[in-house]
Amino acid sequence: MNAKQMIEENNQKRKQLTEENEKYYSDLLLYLRTNWQVSEVHTEEILLELLDHLLEGQQDGKTANEIFGGDPKHYADQLIEQLPREKKRSWFAFMTNQFLVQIVVYILIIRGVVLLVLPLFTEVNDQINIFSMLITVICIGALIMGIARYIFKVIHQSVFKENHAEWKDSVKVGAAAAAGMGIIILLSVWMPEIGPSIHFSWWMSLLLGGGIWVISKMIKRK
């Protein structure tokens, strides 16, 4: 099975857990999945093995505490040490597909819709500067990747904390997102136009955005 199939099976099997065991296991699951350095496939494999072991023990009246021990963080850290690391190229490919490609698609489609509707009310300029557009997309992609990794880190560090104030995590994530949005706005305002600008109509924008989306979906399925 691939990672997606294992996640779906995991979601179905977890419904059989008692409330106490589900809480213990969910913390383990969240802690392992938010460690971006380890292999996703091997992580899902070990999570399924743990779940099967827990379900067998649950049938005998055992709790997750009795099966895995009273220190889930220490147990999870031991598991992480044994898991193979994710290859850098695999992580880069995942992040590129999940964020950078999607960003390009959203920008193109939103731009196409705006250019289609806005001329009904006012004049619009459908010229784009190749340099500023390229740099802006790269910067937005890098910012979103960085924010995503930061969110994973915040969640990972807070999973097993007793009496943890979740609002503090929300403030940290919100501040990071606000800072990222501010940088994106500044980029869009101050980015210099260097080199040629080209005519890029609304239908070209929609067509290109839809084409990239279809190709990315086909590659992901393969």
UniProtKB/TrEMBL annotation:
Instruction: Say which domain of life the source belongs to.
Output: Bacteria
Tell me which UniProt keywords the record has, alphabetically. Membrane, Transmembrane, Transmembrane helix
Q: Name one Pfam family in it.
A: DUF1129
Asked whether the UniProt record includes Transmembrane helix among its keywords, one would answer yes
What are the transmembrane regions? Answer: 99-122, 128-152, 173-191, 197-216
Q: Which InterPro entries match?
A: DUF1129
Q: What is this protein called?
A: DUF1129 family protein
